[in-house]
Amino acid sequence: MNRVLQPFAYTRASTAWPFVVAVLSIVMVSLWLVGTIPVDDASGIRRALRGGALCALATALGAMPVWVVKRLPQRLADGLLGFGAGVMLAATAFSLVLPGLDAATRAGYSAWGAAGLISAGVMLGALALLALDRSTVEDPRDANRHLVPSRVMLFVLAIVLHNVPEGMAVGVAAGGGLSGAEGLAMGISLQDVPEGLVVALILAGAGMARSKAVFIGALSGVAEPVAAVLSAWAVAFSAMLLPWGLAFAAGAMLIAVGHSVIPESNRHGHGATASLGLAIGFCLMMALDTALG
């Protein structure tokens, strides 16, 4: 029987338990960081760490049901991906671009100057993520070489890459002291739950042992607190970097949504479900940004 279809209990303990311990460690460390760092702490870097840890916790919790869930209906999976895309699009507009324009205006730029600065930053972020994505695409001429990553590993790398701009967004908002930083972190962590579930399910469906699939799904979320802290440090180092950082994160997130998440959500013929999920996610993130920001 394909090991993907076997219950978790049948996985050899010597193979499974190291991954189980690793996943639980990610959950416990994230819980500790979220619980011990106050929301109104004066340090933007610590707030960024708290927000990033919340996102990592959400990703890990989302991946954990794969230990017992054999499969997810494809329509539901596509709807969840669409929901995540909607959250990220709303975060790009309301939590990154608009505050970036405001920060540029407060820095002394005219309306046209602020628009030009933010546009340049968005393009830089978009081009940077596209360049990273392009570097992972398999060259057909190398198809028979062992150095070329498998399709599954390419998928994992793509997930990690698109988690980076999410962490950057949390870090830049926290490091810049934006009023909507907490709402942004909550919104992104909300969409990280189904994202962690879908990632782990896809890895398990590709033939990976359940325990390892859950571990990699949870581990992909660790990129967010790392990116959040680095971004918050950069913004704290120079206040002039705030509008650039917001715009760069917006561009990277925009490409992650348009180039990866939306196409994947429509790949199985459930475009209407995915689009409805996108609209719901967009509205929910907009409401969070308005209520908490």
Question: What does this protein structure show overall?
Answer:
The protein has 293 residues and is mainly alpha-helical. Helix content is 77%, strand content 0%. It has ten helices and no strands. The chain has helices at 13-36, 44-63, 74-106, 111-135, 151-175, 181-205, 210-220, 223-237, 241-266, 271-292. Helix 3 (74-106) runs parallel beside helix 10 (271-292). The chain is globular. The termini are far apart.
Oligomer: single chain
Terminal CA distance reads 51 Å
Number of strands: 0
- Our count of helices gives 10
Annotation keywords:
single chain; 293 residues; mainly alpha; 10 helices; globular; disordered N terminus
Give the SSE layout.
Layout (H helix, E strand, L loop, with lengths): L12 H24 L7 H20 L10 H33 L4 H25 L15 H25 L5 H25 L4 H11 L2 H15 L3 H26 L4 H22 L1
Helix pairs in contact: 1-2, 1-7, 2-5, 2-6, 2-7, 2-8, 3-4, 3-6, 3-9, 3-10, 4-9, 5-6, 5-8, 5-9, 6-7, 6-10
Task: Give a brief rundown of this model.
The chain is built from ten helices and no strands. It has helices at 13-36, 44-63, 74-106, 111-135, 151-175, 181-205, 210-220, 223-237, 241-266, 271-292.
